[in-house]
Amino acid sequence: MIDLRQTKEYANYLHLDGWIVERIDNVNYFLKKLPIVGYVLKIQRPERIDFKVIDKLSQKYGIFQIIIEPKFEYQVSSIQSHGYQLAKSTYLPSKTLCIDLSKSQKEIYSHFQRNIRTGVARGKSFKTKVYSTPQDLKIFRNAWKSSVKFDRYVPSLESLLNLRKSFKQNKCIFLASHNIVGRIIGGVIFTITSHGVSNYITFYNYGFISNEGRSTLSMASLLYQGILWGKEMGCKTFDFEGIYDERFPNKSWLGFTRFKKSFGGYEVLYSGTYTKTNWLNLFK
C-alpha cells in the first residue's frame, strides 16, 4: 500500500507549506532550502528508488544533504552501495502499530484492553464534532495550543488549513471531543491514502488531550471513532503512525506507546533513515 508521503495529496500539502515538490514517475521528492547550507532533499517511503533522478535533482538544485527513508528492507543494500549512511535518529517513525480493518468491528474491539474499553464507554457521554471550516480549524488549534505545554509542537493555522485544502473531505477528518459545557478536551486528525480501489489505509496524524480529557480517557474514544471511520471508508489498515523503537530510543515515546498498544494490533518495522552529504555543494 502506498505511503501517505507518496500521495499527490501530501505532495500538494507540502507544496502549500513552502516545500519544492518534484513528482517524477509517481515518486515525491521534497526539497527545502535552508539558510547557509542550501537545499535538503527528502525521499520518504517510496515504492522504488531511482538514483539517476536523485543525481539529476542534486545537480539541478545543488543539494547539500539527501535523506532517504526506505519503505522496504530490500532497498537498503542499494542505498548503502550509493554511499548513504544510517542516521542515529529518524524523521518518520521507524516502528509503528497497525490494526487490520478487514476484521469485524466486534473482533477489533475484542483486542482492546480494559482501559481502552472504559474510555470508549465513557466517550459515549461526550459530544464529538467534525471540524472543517477555517473558523473551525482556528478553534481546533486554539484548543490544541492550550492543552499542551509551551514547548510542544503545534502546527500553524496556515499549515492545518493547507492540510484541509490538500485532502478531500472523505480523505481527511478533524475530530474533537467536548465535555458537558462544550469545551474541547481532545482532538485528533486522520488522513486516508489509497493505491488502487482496495488498498486504503488510515493514518493517525496528530492528537492532543487536555488534563480533563486525560482523566476521562477521551482519547480512547476519539481513536476508536477514527478506526470506525476508516473501516466505514473501506480502509484495510489503521496505522497509529509511530511507537517506541528500541533501535532509535526516544524515551518520551514510551507513554503513548503503552497507550497505543492497548488497542491490540500488529507491529511494523522500517529500516530507519539514511543520509548522504554533498560537502562540495555547500560552497556553491
Write a concise keyword list for the protein shown above.
single chain, 284 residues, alpha+beta, Aminopeptidase, 2 domains, 7-stranded mixed beta sheet, 6-stranded mixed beta sheet, 10 helices, 33% helix, globular
Protein described:
- It is a single chain.
- 33% of the residues lie in helices and 27% in strands.
- It is built from ten helices and 13 strands.
- The strands form two sheets. Strands 7-8-9-10-11-6-12 form a seven-stranded mixed sheet, sandwiched between helices. Strands 1-2-3-4-13-5 form a six-stranded mixed sheet, with helices on both faces.
- Helix 1 packs antiparallel against helix 7 (157-166) and helix 5 crosses helix 9 (218-232).
- The relative contact order is 0.19.
